[in-house]
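Colleagues,

For the teaching module next term, I've prepared a clean inverse folding example: a structure given as tokens, and then the sequence designed for it. I'd like students to try predicting residues themselves before seeing the answer, so please don't circulate the second half yet.
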């Protein structure tokens, strides 16, 4: 819904994740779901798929649909890929049903601005910049 059919195209399949784009947005989905989830803030012109579950554009890196807010996208590199992804309602992602309190607080602090739609992300995989270390979508260390 809301995609531009004239410019819509499949970008790439990456071990369980599919990426598509149109002139306005980048989308991600899995074989198990038919819902396209917008990659939050992604630039369709410079978006590139890395090793699952990571991708990047000229501004940021992404895990599934979530921006990671990296300090230096040029230095972002995947250490270890991971094919398992979660597709969950926003209320579950921001709520205490499945996660320990510290994860819920992290999700609310970083992604509390989200107001609707499902979230597609992975807890697995590892990535880094020179000063940041990520496990899945979560920032674990920052120098």
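(Answer key — instructors only)
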């Amino acid at each position: 819904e809301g995609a531009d059919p004239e410019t819509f195209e499949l970008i790439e399949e990456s071990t369980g994740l599919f990426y598509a784009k149109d002139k306005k947005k980048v989308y991600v989905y899995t074989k198990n779901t038919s819902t396209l989830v917008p990659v939050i803030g992604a630039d369709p012109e410079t978006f590139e798929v890395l090793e699952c579950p990571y991708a990047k554009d000229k501004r940021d890196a992404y895990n599934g649909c979530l921006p990671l807010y990296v300090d230096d996208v040029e230095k972002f590199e995947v250490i270890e890929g991971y094919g398992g992804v979660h597709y969950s309602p926003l209320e579950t992602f921001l709520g205490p049903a499945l996660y320990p309190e510290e994860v819920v607080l992290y999700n609310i602090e970083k992604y509390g601005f989200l107001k609707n739609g499902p979230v597609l992300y992975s807890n697995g995989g590892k990535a880094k910049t020179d000063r940041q270390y990520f496990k899945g979508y979560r920032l674990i260390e920052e120098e």
